[in-house]
Amino acid sequence: MSTRSEGPLRGRVALVTGGSRGVGRGIVLRLASDGAAVAVNYRRDADAAADVVREIQTRGGIARAYGAAIGDDEAVRSMVAQIRADLGGVSIVVSNAGSASRGRTVTDTGLDEYRSLLDVHALGPIALVQELMPDLRSADRSDVVMISSATVTSTPARSAPYTMAKAAMETCMLTIAREERANGVRANIVAPGLVETEMGRRLVSAATAGGSMTDLQAASPFGRVCTPADVAGVVAFLVSQDASYLTGQRVMVDGGGPDVSIF
Ligand SMILES: NC(=O)c1ccc[n+]([C@@H]2O[C@H](COP(=O)([O-])OP(=O)(O)OC[C@H]3O[C@@H](n4cnc5c(N)ncnc54)[C@H](OP(=O)(O)O)[C@@H]3O)[C@@H](O)[C@H]2O)c1
Hints:
This protein is 45% helix and 14% strand.
């Protein structure tokens, strides 16, 4: 892993929400490897966040952990102030934190669940972007990347609160792309299919009555399930100089779509 002074993202500060585990952890490691100083946001699992920070620091990179639940606007405000004080202005924000629906039909899902998923996947990330906008606008180059989901395209049964909330944020991202390009801010969406993480494993178990991720590997595109590193590679491209003329795009990271979908 290279250090901040070596990589293509040297001098940039990145915030990755839900960066302690799963897809977010993969993104944190990749952006740090490309030279960014990384703020690792988490909600509860402070040990997991501390682990990834230690891994980056051991390799000579710059990272710090920040606890704050996306959706808790006061906690998010204090986190942003602390990151500014510790690392400087953020010029890369990856909105990745999230959780899945409980798997009920539209009819059987209480409105509280819709509200809660909208808070985590749409309203919370909007509040975060609002808070960071002064930093993003004042940087020479800045990027907002949202980790969405292929479910916005496939609209599977029993996941409406999750899919609706992701769709709402996708629409907001495309609007931000138009509104903020005059200020140098790029806004893009990355929409993975199934990814090998704790959330992915839970989804597979629920959809296949106790089946495991291992059972799906051979039948998946390219003979394997997508990994956090696959998603991180696309994020790294989007925030790189090679993508500086790119905004308002949605990239699906699903190997071209599964032959047999669990979603
Ligand atoms: N896995 C998949 O198959 C898949 C497919 C498509 C899209 N995605 C999307 O990819 C993103 C990451 O998913 P994942 O699979 O990596 O999930 P995961 O393994 O369950 O990890 C979730 C991460 O998000 C954090 N988090 C959850 N709610 C949060 C909140 N309100 N505020 C701050 N952090 C929060 C968790 O922190 P704590 O541990 O501290 O709670 C953890 O770091 C999500 O947006 C998900 O919708 C996943």
